[in-house]
Amino acid sequence: MQKAFQLFLFFVRTDLKNRSALAGILLFGLCSIYSAYLMNKSQVDGEYLVTFWILSILFAGFYTIQRDDHGSSKSSQLFLYTLVSPRLYIIIKSLYSGFFLALINLVQWVLMLFFFGQDWVQGQSPLLILTAVIAISLALGITLSFVHGISLKTQQPGGILAILGFATLIPILFASVLLMQSIVLQTQQNADWGWMLISMMIVLPFALSNVLYPYLWRD
Amino acid sequence: MKKNWWKILTVLMLTYVLIATFSVPLVPGGLGISIAELHRGKQTVEFVGYNTHFQEQAPNLQCFVAVGDQYLGVDEIQIKDNQHVQFEIQWPDTLPSSAIAFYVNDEVDGSIYVSTALINKEIAIISNAPLKGAIQPNVKTDEHQVWGFPFQPILFETIRNLMLHVPMWFTMFFLMGIGFVASIKAMRGNPTSDLVAVASVKVGLLFCILGLITGSLWARFTWLTWWTKDPQLNGALVVFIVYAAYILLRNSIDDEIKRARISAVFNIFAFVLMIVLLMVMPRIADNSLHPGKSGNPAFSKYDLDSSLRSVFYPAVIGWIMLGYWIYRLQLKFEKLNDKVNRR
Q: Alpha-carbon distance A120 to A43, whole Å?
């Protein structure tokens, strides 16, 4: 447990040291929401904004995963080996990516409220929205961490991450759109289905990456 | 010959399946009627049948109308040909129900009917009241005496696609299953299993494409669109993309052992994702148009009668055997390719 905490702190410290990365995240969020504002300033439509938010978190997901290079070289792998086992590494890495993404996505949500006002989310529970944002971010973070682990072992990690990520993220994007639209538009039937789907997309990749990830490290 | 018995059996089975699929007729059924609106008094109705034998069965032909659970007789029956019959109905001033079905019965076609919503602005509906002039039809048999595939509204002749579309998915599952087992072996350090996995996935993808094409064609005729927001339909496309990504991933790693292990990891992930996308999600979704999903009646419950079963089951077995045959050829090719690359 202590080792896991140390690794988590290591990720946090690495990110805090890299100020350009943090500035990049803020700039990224601002740019994506501002482009939504430019495209759609004439009308504030919840359905449209949710879809745009989902698209922006997709880019945020890829950015978050691409930004770090832990485990990309033999030396960094060796260093991580000394800290924790591969299984514990992927657990911490997935959770860290998920919560890091949740932070970015919440910032984007706040920026959207700033640009577009709060009329389109009037009457919705902020706690429900917060839970949904965290759940979606966890699903994205966990799946992308696993896929990133695979792509690092190939000759073209960037390209392979895009290809594998695109294929495996479609169900998550579908679930995210369904869930967020159902929350914003308050349709209960779709909400149940959305929650079920997003939970499945958290549990399944998490369990699979736990079982399969150690095999990727056997170099 | 002894070694290849199953290949001969595959050819024979698929020959039987293809001949039966395209030559067995549909059983008789009612296609439609000529009126869309009810009028007080006498009304002439033309009944259109499909694969019916009205002219041949003229002496035995009976026509009547069901109103709720009561029946009304008709007059002046005129048989135009085997598919068309015209009659007159004298509607009473009141009807006990708005559920109206037009029946034609003969000894070959049995009882066939058309039940359609009719606009009614003239005749009052008094629920469960006795029907004036009601009769009790005296039919010899309700069952048709013709062997054929079921006549189902909306599906009509496209029901034949059951023998092509559904077995494609069974075959794909079978082949991806082989790939899954091979990948588990490859992950545990058996690099030759990687060739088994890639061969099965490549052939599985072929059947996935065929399943998507036959499904899209079926959707065009029954749902009136080539593609729609159906969880199973879109799940199948995602499965195709995920497995295509597997092929790309495998091609991007040069080291043989590393390639076997890493692509095996992804293949296992892809297989579990396929189970979720094609078997779990469509069952819990509430907006599926597929039979057996979201409360829609399944083929097995209503339509998969003995005539369909006698072709459908051999079709499933035949297509799976063909898939296995192609997979073995592909595996030979992969092994040869591997040998050439090693030199």
A: 10
